[in-house]
Specification:
Layout: H1 3-9, E1 13-16, H2 19-26, E2 32-37, H3 49-60, E3 64-69, H4 91-109, E4 114-115, H5 125-133, H6 138-142, H7 145-151, H8 157-160, H9 162-177, E5 179-185, H10 189-202, E6 210-214, E7 227-228, E8 231-232, H11 242-250, H12 254-264, H13 269-281, H14 287-301, H15 303-317, H16 326-333, E9 338-341, E10 345-347, H17 348-354, H18 361-369, E11 373-375, E12 378-379, E13 386-388, E14 397-402, E15 406-412
Parallel strand pairs: 2-3, 2-5, 3-4, 5-6, 9-15
Antiparallel strand pairs: 1-6, 7-8, 10-13, 11-12, 11-14, 14-15
Length: about 425
């Protein structure tokens, strides 16, 4: 299937700037497609994964893909979707973020990023104003939604100029790398079309460049996909463990799972239809969600780690944590409510209150006496017992289980 038709069939595409140029693109493979990534943090998150997997689809279809990281634009901040000015990051922080993001993108897309700072390192402010600023009218920029929305609360000249810088990025990639297509989220429409307008003026309307915006992934409740109650699900396993990502995906709703399979996996549309047929036979076993979790975690972290997550998940929900080693156990518990204890020992009743499991000693006493509290898989039925750091796992952490399924992590300091 033609790549753009496939993206439409997967309901990934939000808008296309020029259908005729899109058809021309579909008939050629010696052209490039790019997507920009913001180095405002040291890791991309699951919400960015749609862009990564879409770039990979273009690569698999034979196109040259160019991931761009904003070493220059990251120093200003994209006003798109923001109601206030971004805080400026230090140059060293931005560079470190770029290095980490490049590793993630290369692992998934298969190619290194281009840093847009390379386009500006030999250009001064007057060069930029003559080269770019003269080509785009202020009235044109004021009509852009990303800028118009900010006029009421105010926008600095730095963020106002962001759209021009991204436009010049597109021109440099077109001129030097043969890139004719920019993809981005639906909030990037204004930036993309400004780039197309700039290239039109520089080439006397003889280019074949166009843009595609992708639907921002939202869940059926209207919230953004890729965020849990504790925040973003990062691709960096040090920030979000693969197990937490696996659990996040396996807990997606039945209303969302087909959309996510279409958008975020390489499974064919026919395969996904068959998966949904099997899923609908017994929704309680979460068959489609399991396929979703295994597909994405395998693509990001590798098949071996995904199999480990699957094994841990089965043991956890069978309430059999005793079979997990310390590292795997901590991976499970890191997302649980956590309490830090800075003493060598603490009475069980005080521990239950400090951990917010109980609000009073009488409630804590009742839980212990009803044999509802386990620590490190051992029943605690003595209200006078002290819980000691020396009995902690790896002398670092313990876990409390209230009943059968409610777990709490204790970090010993």
């Amino acid at each position: 299937m033609d790549i753009i038709l496939e993206l439409k069939a997967r309901n990934v595409i939000n808008n296309i700037t020029n259908d005729d140029k899109a058809k021309l693109f579909s008939k050629s493979k010696n052209v490039g497609v790019y997507c920009g990534f913001d180095p405002s943090f040291k890791s991309l998150h699951l919400g960015n994964y749609l862009m990564l997997i879409t770039l990979k689809r273009f690569a698999n279809a034979g196109y040259k893909v160019v991931p761009l990281v904003g070493g220059a634009t990251g120093q200003i901040g994209d006003p798109s979707g923001k109601l206030a000015e971004r805080k400026l990051l230090g140059i060293n922080v931005i560079q470190n973020n770029i290095n980490e993001i490049n590793k993630q993108i290369k692992a998934i897309v298969g190619t290194n990023c281009i840093n847009n700072m390379d386009f500006y390192k030999n250009m001064n402010i007057f060069d930029f104003l003559r080269e770019v600023g003269k080509e785009i009218n202020v009235n044109y920029l004021l009509e852009k939604e990303i800028i118009a929305k900010r006029l009421e609360v105010g926008i600095s000249y730095a963020e106002f100029s962001y759209t021009l810088i991204q436009a010049f990025d597109f021109y440099c990639l077109y001129k030097d790398y043969g890139v004719v297509l920019q993809i981005g989220g639906s909030d990037q429409w204004g930036n993309i079309t400004t780039g197309i307008e700039f290239i039109r003026k520089k080439t006397n309307d003889k280019s074949n460049v166009f843009g595609i915006t992708l639907n921002l992934l939202t869940k059926s409740d209207g919230t953004k996909f890729g965020k849990s109650e504790k925040g973003a699900i990062f691709l960096n396993k040090e920030l979000t463990s693969p197990y937490i990502m696996y659990q996040f995906l396996i807990n997606q709703t039945d209303n969302d799972v087909k959309k996510l399979l279409l958008s975020l996996t390489f499974l064919s549309i026919n395969e996904i239809d068959k998966i949904m047929e099997k899923h609908n036979e017994n929704k309680s076993i979460r068959y489609a969600q399991t396929i979703l979790a295994k597909s994405i975690v395998s693509d990001i972290h590798g098949k071996r780690i995904c199999e480990k997550c699957e094994q841990i998940s089965k043991l956890f929900f069978a309430n059999d944590l005793s079979k997990l080693n310390a590292n795997d156990l901590l991976m499970v518990l890191n997302d649980m409510p956590t309490t830090n204890i800075d003493t060598e020992s603490i009475n069980i009743l005080d521990l239950l209150i400090k951990s917010n499991i109980c609000t009073s000693k009488s409630q804590a006493r009742q839980l212990v006496m009803s044999k509802s509290i386990y620590i490190n898989n051992k029943l605690v039925d003595d209200i006078n017992i002290n819980i000691n750091k020396k009995e902690a796992i790896n002398n670092k952490f313990s876990y409390i289980c209230k009943g059968k399924k409610n777990y709490f992590l204790i970090n010993w300091k």
